[in-house]
Each structure stands twice: as C-alpha cells, then as structure tokens.
C-alpha cells in the first residue's frame, strides 16, 4: 500500500470522500507539469495554543490573516460571502454577499484586493480590501475553484485534483503547474491553501490532514495530523460537510490558525514532530514495549 492511502486510512474522518462535481476540462494548451522524485516525509501532530469563537453557520472555504484581522470566504448557494472577522470574538466586522446562484470558494490577498473563486461557475471576484466593496467580476475561468493563496508574485490555486496551478494575479492565466505527490503517488482532494514560510500548506478534503507542499516540485514534505483539533468538534455533522477547512498564517507573530466548515471554534495551533517506528527495520531493532 502506498503512503497516501496508508496515511488517509489512518487519519481520515470516515474515509476520504470523492467529490461528486464534474471537473471542468483544461484548455488545450496546458502549462507544463513538473514531476518530482521520491522524498521522505516528516509527520507531525498539533498542540492547541488557543481556541476562539467562529460562526458556526459559515461554510468556510478560504481563510487568511492580514493586518490584525481574519478574512474569510464562505460557500453554498445562497449563503456565500466574503467577510472580515475579529479573531478574539469571532464577530463579523464586514461582509459582502456573493451572488446567490454562485458557490463561493477560495480567497487570496493581492495588493489591496481580495480575490475569490467560485466552484463551478467560472467566475472570479475582486473585492476592495478596505471596505469589501466589489471591484469587478470576470467569467470564463476554465477550472473548478477550490483553494487559493498568494506566493510571491503569483497566486496558487487548487481544483480538487492533484494539480496546483500558479497564476498571474492580474490575468488569472496559468504560468506553471505542479503535481502534488506523497511518497511518489499523486495526492488528490487538495483543497484550501495557505503559504507558510515559503511552503504551501493544504487541507486534504474530508480528512484530518494538512499537507505541506514544496512549491517547486509539488512534493509533500510534511503531513500534519489534526485529530486533536477535530476531536474537539463533537457537535458538528461531518456528513453535512462540516469538515476541517481553513488555514491562516500570521507571519508577523508566527501564528497558525485553522478552522472548519460550520465549526463553532477556530484554533491557534503549534505543530510538533511525531516519532514513527521504522517498520522496514529488523525486529530486534524495534523499541521494546512494556
């Protein structure tokens, strides 16, 4: 059994679900895909540093931190929004509706704009960071929209497949692509994205996992098990989609925040390494158990 199946089987919440949406075909002239060599993976658990209130009606799709506040995009038809949120209270300080016939998805910051995706509608919205007023909406985006984040002078986005695409923020044109791999196998269901210290962190949809991806090669270098976080959410209905989703990084204070769809809490976390047994080693080399 290859690593992706093994890891998901160990940590997933009831197994890894498969999206029922049909993938929008890529344009004929796709950007080159970078393939990567096999590399070892480091495994981590998390410690909860703090817990904050979160709107349990928010179907969280995108999350980011900027200048002392959280910015969040939410989904589902008729309830999709882009909003500014106070961390300590969870209060929504400002909110703008995405058209009711559109399903909101990922969110990223570019200069003085927030850019949000829609799921299968091919529409990209640009919002004024200062007051969340709509700047413009453009159609013909040729992919499903899932996660979105900013890396240097590019946007990075996921479409639920194993492909990450790097976009020109002004035109949304694809400049390059990488295939996300975990110990040599493609890793699908890559969802909400965040850049942390130059690495791409990603939720794996319908699991307890965050994976850390090398943006040059697409290789997963770290797997983070958030069971200690998801186990706190005993009141949410996973079958209704209330799964882990949403990563924000406060670079100034080196803080990481996570939440989920329709979760009543948002968490500040710290990652801690996990010591794993080497199952390939001879039996006598394994640690004794008492």
Account of the protein in words:
The protein has 290 residues and is mainly beta. Helices cover 4% and strands 45% of the residues. It contains two helices and 23 strands. It has helices spanning 3-11, 227-230, and strands at 33-34, 42-53, 60-66, 69-74, 81-85, 92-97, 104-110, 113-118, 124-128, 134-138, 148-151, 154-158, 163-167, 174-179, 181-182, 185-186, 190-196, 199-204, 209-213, 220-225, 244-250, 255-260, 265-273. The strands form five sheets. Strands 17-18-19-20-2-23-22-21 form an eight-stranded mixed β-sheet. A hairpin with a 6-residue loop joins strand 13 and strand 14. The longest helix is centred in the first third of the chain and has 9 residues, at 3-11. It starts with a helix and ends in a 17-residue tail after the last strand.
Widest beta sheet: strand line-up: 17-18-19-20-2-23-22-21
| Bulk shape | globular
How far apart lie the N and C ends?
Answer: 29 Å
Number of helices: 2
Q: Tell me the radius of gyration.
A: 19 Å
How would you state the average pLDDT, rounded?
Answer: 87
Judged by helices, strands and strand pairing, the structural class is mainly beta
Indicate the proportion of strand residues: over 45%
């Amino acid at each position: 059994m290859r690593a992706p199946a093994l890891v998901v089987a160990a940590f997933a919440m009831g197994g890894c679900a498969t999206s029922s949406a049909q993938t929008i075909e890529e344009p004929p002239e796709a950007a080159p895909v970078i393939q990567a060599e096999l590399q070892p993976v480091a495994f981590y658990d998390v410690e909860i540093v703090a817990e904050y209130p979160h709107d349990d009606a928010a179907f969280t799709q995108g999350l980011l931190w900027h200048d002392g506040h959280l910015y969040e995009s939410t989904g589902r038809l008729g309830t999709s929004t882009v909003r500014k949120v106070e961390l300590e209270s969870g209060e929504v300080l400002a909110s703008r509706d995405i058209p009711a016939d559109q399903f909101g998805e990922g969110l990223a910051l570019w200069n003085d704009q927030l850019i949000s995706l829609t799921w299968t509608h091919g529409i990209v919205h640009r919002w004024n960071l200062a007051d969340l007023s709509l700047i413009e909406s453009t159609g013909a985006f040729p992919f499903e929209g899932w996660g979105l984040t900013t890396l240097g002078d590019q946007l990075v986005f996921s479409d639920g497949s194993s492909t990450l695409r790097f976009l020109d923020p002004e035109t949304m044109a694809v400049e390059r692509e990488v295939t996300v791999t975990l110990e040599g196998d493609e890793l699908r269901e890559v969802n909400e994205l965040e850049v942390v210290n130059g690495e791409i962190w990603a939720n794996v949809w319908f699991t307890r996992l965050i994976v850390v991806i090398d943006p040059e090669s697409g290789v997963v270098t770290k797997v983070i098990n958030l069971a200690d976080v998801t186990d706190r959410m005993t009141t949410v209905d996973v079958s209704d989609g209330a799964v882990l989703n949403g990563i924000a990084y406060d670079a100034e204070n080196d803080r990481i925040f996570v939440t989920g769809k329709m979760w009543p809490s948002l968490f500040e976390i710290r990652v801690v390494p996990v010591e794993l047994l080497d199952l390939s080693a001879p039996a006598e080399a394994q640690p004794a158990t008492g």
